[in-house]
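Changelog excerpt

This revision adds worked examples to the README so contributors can see how folded entries look when concatenated. The first example is reproduced verbatim below.
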Amino acid sequence: VATDSHLWSDSYDRQMENIFAVQDDIATSVANALKITLEGTQAPKIQQRNPEAYNAYLQGRYFYDRRSKDVLEKAIGYYEQALRIDPNYARAWAGLSRVHARQADGGYVRVEESYSKAKKEAQKALDLDSNLADAYAAISWIKRNYDWDWTAADVASKRSLELEPTSVDALTNAALLDLTLCRFDEGIAHSRRAIQLDPLSATAYSRLAFLSYYAGRISESEAAFRKVLELNPQRPAGRYLLGLIYLE
């Protein structure tokens, strides 16, 4: 950029059976040509994913972020659909783990039974991909919310961020753990980074709202909670927590 000189160009003529392989092929070529240091500890890996499984996975992610009882059931359905198509889809196993944990946290199902499923699914994801940031984020969530093992939760969270610093799931999970450990400034930074990466993430705004509230930044918390409700008017506890702010 400084010299305004041409650095790299190429063309790609590929079959469409695995669009993700093409995507990773291009990304790797760009990285190698520019000789940059990639974020994270792992080089890009080709994602040999069935497009139908990937589509079901994306829908599972969408419904997971909506959080109410009915839509969480939909999220499970889509993740399970992805796994029927591709039983070795590690990200789908990690996603399923997060949904079962969220169901338990919301009081929608029996806690022990649902967290037992979540643990097995997170471990399955890790067994399939030992460098999957989502799997470590899921384990961190379980350690924090169910086992109450803050140290193990922190180790898993940091590993998740080390592997994939631009993962919104890893960042929002880290922000929640920061809240638990009263690391408000660090958590606010994690939340803002997540929002920068995904401006439509109600979860990221929710983390920012909570952290700002407990850090005493009431006006910032109110603004973040209003954004949460704008993105997801049905998000549980959103209006209740906004009410707490009005009592300040």
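The second example, added in the same revision:
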Amino acid sequence: MNKVLVYNCMEYPEKISLFRQGIHREVAEAGIEAEYVEPLFPEAIFRIDEFTHLIISGSEASAMDESLWTAELTRLIRLFVEKGKKILGICYGHQFLARALCGKNCLYKLPVPEYGYSGISIKENKLFKNIHNPLVLQLHYDAVRNLPEDFEIIAENKTAIQGFQYKGMDVFGVQFHPEFDQTAARYFLDEARKNDPEFPAFYRNELEDEKSLEQNGLFISNFLGFR
């Protein structure tokens, strides 16, 4: 039976809670057991055989920096890969996953951050089953580039690589946030609007019909369904 380890790198209680709620919606729908943890959680290394899936959250931290959990999460990712287990990294998790597998040289800071709703181009991939012309929530300053041949780019837009798959395994990163509903999205966008005077200059909103967001839960539910 599938069991997912949800590793939450968010640093503030409200954000930790919103991420957990977003993932839990899909976990509950899939009827899968989940364990939600925050750094530091060294026992995860010793209990790794309990879990089939790993989801890594976004974060206020930069994946290019050294954080308290850097060594722990790097080891956890490498063990999951070594054992052929399944990983989904979201935003910071996408960037950190790339760092753990090929080094910091694949990360960079965007000249202009990407915040708001934007369309992305996707390749045919089982992670994207029944997803068409996705419009997704972006909340990032850092991005991924210069990935080696071990990585297949499976989603992108004009700003950044939006998704990759590692070595044909069930190891994926997505730059966007499929886990947040409209309430969570408004919270994060309002926080950025209040705290960054440059927000009006980089905010994008291609959202015309909220119904177009209804399919976005499939990014997570497809991943949770991998056996």
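Reviewer comment on example two: The radius of gyration is 16 Å. DSSP finds seven helices and eleven strands in the chain.
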